[in-house]
Amino acid sequence: MGIAWLAPAAWWLGALVAVPVAVHLLARQRRRPVRFPTLRFVEAASAPSRRHWRVRDPGLLAVRSAILLALAAALAGPMLVTSGRQARWDARLARAVVIAPEVVAAPVVSDAELPESDGIGRRFVTRDLAGGLADASAWLSAQGPHRREIVVVGPLPRGALTSADILALPAGLGLRFERTGALAASTREQMAALLVGDTLWRVTESVTLDDASTTVREKGRALERGRVVEATAGVAEQPVAEAARRAVLRRGVRLTSPNDVPMSAPWTGSVAALAAAVDARHATSDDHASDEAMAIDDATLAGWARPASPYGASAPVDEGDRRAVWLAVLALLALESWWRRRPA
């Protein structure tokens, strides 16, 4: 058993207890003048003013100080955390489900198959899973005392979530993933120039990836005046440089744009050096896979997942403890009013 404070910063108001103390110390007692007939003709003497630093009514000062301390305690929001209350908090689960739109629209996934909560729940349908996590976290933080959990449902493509998105979630918030639904197909095109016989061809390779297959389509067209690569050499070395240029084109040159201008590479007497210069200019990556068509691996998801922790008394909720302190403030105010008016 313990006491948690929902707004502990309000205890700074307790410093106001110095106000009634100062008032009681600085208050002057009102004296009633009484004339004595035998002293009428005594010369008036001005006695030095003296201040007596003493509390005239300690009981009233104590009541007023208690009012200010009780007021600070009420604003600080006390919460008595008993074992029974903690058990009630942990028995309820607030769950936010972040769902990809394709999962909701899929006819094979019924509404009953999506996660439900045994406490309160809400669904966030969004293509932006990172933004959905932030929205779900904000909604859960505004709920009452429950265990809190976020469930992410969808195909979970690579790049949809990052470690930074997970670290931004508050501590104690549960997180788990349910992979379902098909990844969206992704198509990427790459171009290449090939010399076939004496004809230069521009070949466009289209690679389509989805969760079940990879489809590659190629189409090409002849270039009437395309050069793609120019080997700069002296007059005497031009025949050899031209042969090297054609050898590089037969191997294939990756293009970075549909209308690539011819690249000039110096002829140094080596076909390998000319090919290396061409590769440095053009994109030669064979990685046709698109991040959008690849799923986040299971090991990463397992590292991100975490259970919902028991609820801690940190949310701005009022289950009656604060009301009890406010009642104590009212009772002290009534006592202070009676104390001031009681007969001397």
Q: Into how many domains do the coordinates divide?
A: 3
How is the biggest beta sheet arranged? 4 strands, parallel
Low-confidence stretches: 108-112, 283-289
Rounded mean pLDDT is: 75
Total beta-strand segments:
12
What order do the helices and strands follow?
A: EHHEHEHEHEHEEEEEHEEHHH
Rg is 41 Å
**Measured distance between first and last alpha carbons:** 45 Å
Strand content: 15-25%
Structural class of the helices, strands and pairings? alpha/beta
Principal-axis shape? elongated
- What share of the residues lie within helices? 25-40%
Set down the secondary structure blueprint:
Blueprint: E1 2-5, H1 18-26, H2 58-76, E2 78-81, H3 83-91, E3 93-99, H4 101-105, E4 120-125, H5 129-141, E5 147-154, H6 163-167, E6 174-179, E7 186-196, E8 199-209, E9 214-223, E10 229-232, H7 238-251, E11 253-255, E12 263-266, H8 271-281, H9 298-304, H10 321-341
Parallel strand pairs: 3-4, 3-5, 5-6, 10-12
Antiparallel strand pairs: 1-2, 7-8, 7-11, 8-9
